[in-house]
């Protein structure tokens, strides 16, 4: 998905049902209605609000995949029938060494397609991404719920997938977002990136970071408290972390792909 054109990112659509938003998004949001595939990974669910907002409230979520044992975690929430609406996955993918038999049977009765992939050289997240890539509803952006949670090695594996997806034809060549109860992150494209970032309850808090994970980069920013111009950033050198949003739209021009992190506002919109 490498491009020299401006790339527009609309993470507010992911964390807030746009029909419930009473404010005014920047004009770019009115011009497109992105559709999302959601993957729930095998991590304890710390915050049901995030899960329900993205899935059950998801007018924009058209495909749901549970990565193996994620089905156990969702099933263990003991949701009411009305709460469960919108949380039934289209697919459960993985080597299926974690999902409990009774949970597997439950979702099969609900119409979920179970796809077993025994390959031990790929993670359940990789298998789930491939499952999405084979679905005819593409192109879809991808939201990974539970991202950068749990073990450090699994967290780095998830970041690795952000880099490899654009180069692996078996994975979705689309925007991929990692979401946990505290933050959302995604890998910016080379060139100009324009990110919608409205602050407020149920949306974003002010803190953001620009992390040059794979290699050094030169960045120019607009819309942050501490904007920079032609600024060299690298691990072991200078990095822009704990910067603050000062505009509903942020512009970042980068010579290399860099990770962009946004803090979620912890107050809940009524």
Which features would summarize this protein structure in a list?
270 residues; alpha/beta; 10-stranded mixed beta sheet; 5-stranded mixed beta sheet; 21% helix; globular
Describe the structure.
- The chain has helices spanning 12-15, 27-30, 48-54, 70-75, 81-84, 101-109, 124-133, 152-164; strands at 7-9, 36-40, 61-67, 91-94, 113-116, 141-145, 176-179, 183-187, 191-196, 204-211, 217-222, 231-233, 240-244, 249-254, 259-264.
- The chain is an alpha/beta fold.
- The strands form two sheets. The chain has a ten-stranded mixed beta sheet, sandwiched between helices.
- The relative contact order is 0.17.
Strand and helix map with partners:
Layout: E1 7-9, H1 12-15, H2 27-30, E2 36-40, H3 48-54, E3 61-67, H4 70-75, H5 81-84, E4 91-94, H6 101-109, E5 113-116, H7 124-133, E6 141-145, H8 152-164, E7 176-179, E8 183-187, E9 191-196, E10 204-211, E11 217-222, E12 231-233, E13 240-244, E14 249-254, E15 259-264
Parallel strand pairs: 1-9, 2-3, 2-6, 3-4, 4-5, 6-7
Antiparallel strand pairs: 7-8, 8-15, 9-14, 10-13, 10-15, 11-12, 11-14
What's this, in brief?
Helices cover 21% and strands 29% of the residues.
